[in-house]
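We read letters as residues; the fold follows as tokens. A sample entry reads:
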Amino acid sequence: MFAKADDLVMVIQPETGGTEIKDPATGETVGRAPEHARAHLDSAVDAARAAQPGWDALGHAERSSYLNRAAQAVEDNAEALAELLSREQGKPLNGPNARFEVGACAAWLRTTASFELEPEVVADGAELHYRPFGVVGAIGPWNWPMMISVWQLAPSLRMGNTVVLKPSEYTPLSVLALAHVLNTALPDDVLHVVSGGREIGEALVAHPHIDKLMFTGSTETGKAIIRSSADTVKRLTLELGGNDAGIVLPDIDPASIAEDLFWGAFINTGQTCAALKRLYVHETVYDDVVEALAGLAAAMPMGVGLDESNVLGPVQNKAQYDIVTELVQAAKDDGARIVVGGNPVEDQPGYFYPTTLVADIDDKNPLVAREQFGPVLPIIKYSSVDEAVAMANGLDVGLGASVWSSDQEKAHSVAVRLQAGTVWINKHGAVDPRIPFGGAKQSGYGLEFGVEGLKHLGQPQVISH
């Protein structure tokens, strides 16, 4: 059991060399991450491939038992993991952030272990089975590095695959530490992590002995993965960019939904694929919704994650900070109204961008049309529901969406018109390990979570008598 983040870092960082990882809130060094070469990747894939038949032979019940033991290991080391995550990713300990993320890792492991997956009788004498692919390669993002890694590895392992995981180069320590903790409970060689930059990721995608690939990240990178995987005809699960829309209907009480709207947009300081990133509000309630959100935005404490009072943190890296800054400036240049925020303090440590609401903005403005992935929410006024639906569906992405109304029937009638993999009613981004999740249009393909997500980690096989 690890008491502190530094204890974990000492175990996972190389004795010499490596890449220095800095806290995005303070600029202080968190630790050093290994830079693995192609030979290390090949060795990891070979070891995972050798271990896979024995892991498969254990059967679902025994593999589920291992996942439960892995969940317990996460819980036993939860505070050290959360502290490391806060320091490396920037998210605060409290609120829906670091401690929440570590808790979600354990919950996803246990829930995935609980699913029943039996052969399906599809016709007389014909059964549909799901067999493991072999070795699953997984590439994760920097926004929820631990939790999304578990989203990838838990169902892969449960199905009898072994896993080689590559974390984002921005947050490798969190994933290396998580894997170290998980491997205290798992058999040898069923889970490996390779750490490095773009080259090691490209090698993993193209590797001839990776049978299935899971990726969470940008649409552009997802397209590159599709091209790179073609020669080996890898099976793919891709969860790509979102730019999720929300529609507030005129019958709503703004005060009753303001907090849920706020966290739907600003969870993890807006750095979430399925966060609410553009909000369409009917003209009759527009001013009241903007005012209610402004009061919350101004009151939410932002700062260094290890300060227990903070619930919002920095943008995780300079490249993303620059994108957020550029998009807010585009809104200003177009005459949009900055309700709260929009004025980052220069010459301060950390990539802090203030919580920002932008009103009276055109739907075609870059802040609306592009995924900002930061603590900024554009709020667009509409006159008719048809207009709102057309704007919400007007982009080439469709991960999630939401409808906000006091009338469930009205909300449902709008929800079915939205082009998104998930549409929430009176909430946004509420993922659940039991409920399948995946994108429409260029937000990716394949499903995660639930029994349906589990099936996507298996090769369908029909046995017909």
